[in-house]
Amino acid sequence: MIVRDQLARRLAALLRDDPRRVLLGEDARDGGMLGLTRACVEDPELEARVIGTPLVPALALAHAGGLAIAGLRPIVALPSAAALYEGFAALRELCRLSLCTDDERSAPALLLAPCGPGLGLGGDGADELSSLLAPLSGLRVLACSDPREAAALVREAAEFTAGEQPTVVLLPRDQLFVDVGDPVDTLEEPVALRRLRHGDRATVFCWGAATARALAAVDALEVAVDVIELRALSPLDRAGLVAAAARTGKLVIAHPGPSAFGVAAELAALFADAAILHLDAPVLRVGGEAGPLARDTEGRALPSVAAITEAILRVVTF
Amino acid sequence: MSLIEFKLPEIGEGVVEGEIVAWLKRPGEAIAANEALVEVMTDKATIEVPSPLSGVVLELRAEVGDICAVGQVIAALGPAGAAPRTEPAATPVSSATSEAGAQVLATPAARALARESGIDLAALPVDARGRITKSDVIAARERAAAPAKTPPAPVAAPPARAPAPPARQVVVREGDEELPFRGMRRRIAEGLTRSYTTAVHYTYVEQINVTKLVRLRDEAKALAAEQGVALSYLPFIIKAVVHGLRKFPIVNAELDEAGARILIKRRYSIGVATATEQGLLVPVVHDADRLSILDLAREVARLSEATRAGKATRDELTGSTFTVSSLGLIGGVMATPIINYPEVGILGVHAIRKTPVVDEHDNIVIGHLMNLSVSLDHRVVDGFEGAQFLQEVRRYLEDPNMLLLAGI
Amino acid sequence: MEQSPWDPEGVTPRLDASGTIVLADGAPDPTATIDLRGFYRAMVHARCLDLALARAGLPMWAPAAGEEAVTASCASLCDPNEWIYAGVRDQPALAMLRGVSPASVLAGHRDGARYRGAPGGASLPGVNLGHVPETLGLYLGLAAGHAHALKLERAGQATVAIFGEGLTTVGLYRETVSLAVACDLPLVLLCKSQLWPEAAPAEAAVFGESVAERARAVGMGARRVDGADPVAVYEAIEWALSRARYGRGPTLVEAVITQLIHPDVPGHRDPIERLRRHLDRAGQWTPTMQDALEAELRGQLPRDEEEAP
Question: pTM for the full model?
């Protein structure tokens, strides 16, 4: 079963599990832009809780906010993470809701955001947005790296175990239509960070669509490299990140999208601050090209395997 | 006249570099011709280097502690009234300066580990780009922990750098006192290390009955005192050594390995190892063969005083062909003296002690016995020759009449 | 009766400029169905609070004098569980009429509040008033979402949003209306419109005949009333709430108000004055009573907020 359908079934299961959950999105009552809401619409028990929203992202987010104030748990299937460019002001308000109501209300709203290259959209569609979203105070930002975990990550997010705060799950588009066999049912702990490879010569931090490329680079090298996947981009597991950085002191950050002024810069600053005595080489960021990218070159939004390899060798031989 | 670059001048025969000990003028200060500008320490002595002209000091291009090559620009001088440069002094260009003066380029992790392990980063080798990383410090630590072990095998990719020379792990414990290791101490260490690791040392010890010499010296002491000379045994020993060297010239020699030759010295210039506050120095009694016992006594006293006061000239501190090391009353029984390289021999003089001896009539009498230890460079002096040399010295010291006969 | 450029056309009067009830066919007698004295008291207190806020020197504060009929009707007609989303100018009166002490309202926040905005800028606790986001018009979207939850829960309640006609030019208003109509949300939209006898702002051009006219055009139930006619306002809001609660979808009430800060506004454009005239005629108003009403509120304000003699 392809990941998109796994997600659709997971959403239906989530709505069944908790009657407070409602599903919103553009064309949601027709299955949604990507088909994520289909399983819910096809279930007569759930169909009433599927809300088609107008095209404007801000309204979908504001609507989710109102539902949340009334005590429901909205899940918004965004057509694209890039919709958050337009809905940014509304997203900010969701993030501040508990602050502005002195914690009387919160906004446990889950936003599913397909992002990055994959469908040949180019333009804003190739963007990943973590660098725009992570700075928002009050927002939890999760990124899916492993398509087998996509459904489990959405469930983890929908349960708001880390607090009733608006949560964005970044779903790399290139993962949505691949068949990965049996999905992972539950995420292993800790959720925020996951060690994918063990090595002592360097550490690669990565998330989202950059993870596959980082693994390709590391697996082709005969150098033992630690690979740390960030599932949570905000809030960061700072202690875990610093501990991982300290193990080798030679750090590469593979960032899906341009790395300047972004999450990678935040990580580099964190390492310079809290892991300075362990740093044994410059902290290198490897990102993608800045947009807008054309449809046929949208893959350049991600860091290349060659660039990641070069960065690893540079820190290892520093 | 505009800016004059002041180069470290020739400061003695064979001296190629010197350490800046102190600048006696600051930028902006006026200086007169022949007025001292900088104090430079060579492997032999500390000297004041004068300015060649009258003017003003514009710029100092070497820092205290830098080791500068002869001919290297160490300061800029200008005509009186010239303004000193405001920008920071240029980095010394000579490669000889990099190890002492330049900042060590080490990563934070390397610094942290070095600090924790008590490893001096300045003592570690740097890579081709002049840097030290954590792995260099780990390697140094492992070598210190297990010196016999071979360095870790290089990984497949990327290639590891060549293993660095061993560095000892230094653990500083509470209460340990730190003394700087530089200047004269470092010169001494460098000289002795070169000697010990280059010359093939062997030491030969003989016991000498100096009963007659003791009597002679006791008699002569009063006479010498009348001439204002405090007469020790050292002049006699130097005299005997010179006779020994005359008979065995191979001991008064130098090995020029690069030139594939042994130089037999014509002069008999005897170095006298002397303890000073700065450390061991070796003032030289030149042409000892031409001096009488009294003259030798005067010269040794003068040199020793000048050396202790730091007033010895370069000439008086260089050019020895053989060295005598005497610790006087605390001379002990024997020693293994280290050759004052590039000489090939050094004589250690030990304490004179009253000892029961069997005389020619098989009677046990009180004798004055003294040991002599001679260390020789086996590359140049065979054991047989070395032993004969010392026996010759012994002959003169056991029977001071020989000294008279040989002419003083 | 006097007619001024401030008076809207095409509205059905229920309390005319002289304070006389206009009885229409089939309409109930408001003196029997509405607690007019309580209504009057609520409006007077709202006015006194507004004056105190004006004296507090708040940055960019615009007085709400002349608009009290809408807030007082809402406070009276809405169930305390029904949420009201309103802008910063309406929130103080709504909060006070829902039981927050005037002093707290004036302070703008309760002690220890983390977010200290202008009065009404942060939601006041336990009174079911939506906070006012800084994003223009976003609270309309929040109100629609809230109404959607009520619909899903079949709560039989409505959510109210109060706004000025300027906001109806914002995209979020259009989108909120679209969604509310498409989903039959129990949403009551209360629009306070102004007439501009002197100079109309640029937005006025897109209103067409009226905000209510356009609402009807998209299929919403809508009424336009004179905001200076407290009885008409009250009855229109009652009608709108009833529609929403009974599942007949979103309903809009446009109340044409006159801001009393204009110097030449005639007295009958003030809903309080109009109701006073009515009560006076009925022998239910005296100057002493007025003093007592005003003193009742002022007594609850901090000393230094009192008017200088």
Answer: 0.65
